[in-house]
Amino acid sequence: MTSKGISSERERQSSSQRRGMSIEDFSERYGPGRTKTFEEIRAGRLRAKKIGRRTIIAEDDAEEWLRQLPSVEVKAFPPKTTATKVPKAKTRPALARRAGQKRKISNELLHRTAPTGQ
Fold it and tell me: What whole-number distance in Å separates Cα of residue 7 and Cα of residue 9?
């Protein structure tokens, strides 16, 4: 066997003997990120143990958390209908012209002088 084969064999043996995992290991194996994992622990949905400053999640607790997650309900999509022609929205140049007209009108109103009383 190559040294890589021995290493992976050792990793498999040690991981099968290990019953706990760190937050990072849990996140990699089960999918949620660190923040979501801590939210699940605080909410009481995921049990964890403390060893000093480290947080450890037991394999059984991780599996129980996974079993308690809600199932996804697959909804049937409505049948496709033939596409009807929808009128095209105004293009950007048309909108820009409209905006320019508004700007021109507002500038005229701003610079209009008041009639003098003669």
Answer: 5
Asked whether residue 64 is assigned to any structural domain, the reply reads yes
Asked whether residue 22 is assigned to any structural domain, the reply reads: yes
For residues 38-60, one letter each, b for 16 or more C-beta atoms within 10 angstroms of the residue's C-beta and e for the rest, the string is eebbeeeebebeeeeeebbbeee
CB atoms within 10 A of CB 37: 22
Q: What is the pLDDT of residues 18-47, one digit of tens each?
A: 689 999 999 999 999 999 999 999 999 999
Locate 31 and state its tokens: 């999918």
**Is 88 part of any domain?**
no
Tell me which of 72 and 112 has the higher pLDDT: 72
Domain extent, residue 39, equals 11-68
Instruction: Give Cβ neighbours of residue 9 (< 8 Å, ≥ 6 apart).
Output: 1
Q: Is the pTM of this model over 0.85?
A: no
The answer as to whether 5 is a domain residue is: no
**Matching residue, tokens 């996974």:** 66
The domain tally of the chain equals 1
